[in-house]
Specification:
alpha+beta, SAM-dependent_MTases_sf, two-stranded parallel ribbon, about 25% strand, three-stranded antiparallel sheet, 2 domains, Histamine N-methyltransferase, about 35% helix, 7 strands
Amino acid sequence: MLYSHHTCSDLVAKTLGLDHITFRFNKMTASEVESDWKQRNTDRKLDFIHMIQMLYYVTDPEAMVSFFRSLLNKDGKLLIILVSGIPYQSHTLPSQMDITECFTAGDEKGELLLDFLTEVLEFSKNASPELKAGVLELLKHPECSREVDGRIIFNNNLEALVLTP
């Protein structure tokens, strides 16, 4: 079902319990939103962005997804819905990694693991103490890792999508 901009605004206005949520409806293309956002030069982050059946219309979908991901808060969500019509199978590839050494100051293996996990060369040397502490806190969080026999085991599960012709 297609909704006009006006209809969506009306639905939000009529829905109880949304007073604490700010909605912004943009009748713009994704490229126009990106341009507008960059022009305003804001550090503002968003909690939820949806990209529903729109990636077909952008020149560089990967760059567009990357840009919108950069706008998310730490716990923000980006929802992408596409009608591909392409059959696929989804497989979870279990993977875990012992990251205990990351929590020992000066440990060479721990420093290399932090570089790998953050994708930043010499992360510990270049990051502020606050950033490093925040990353370590996040890595130790139960949603990312679990403790087993005094070791910190990071959940590094991967998902593979296998497309068929």
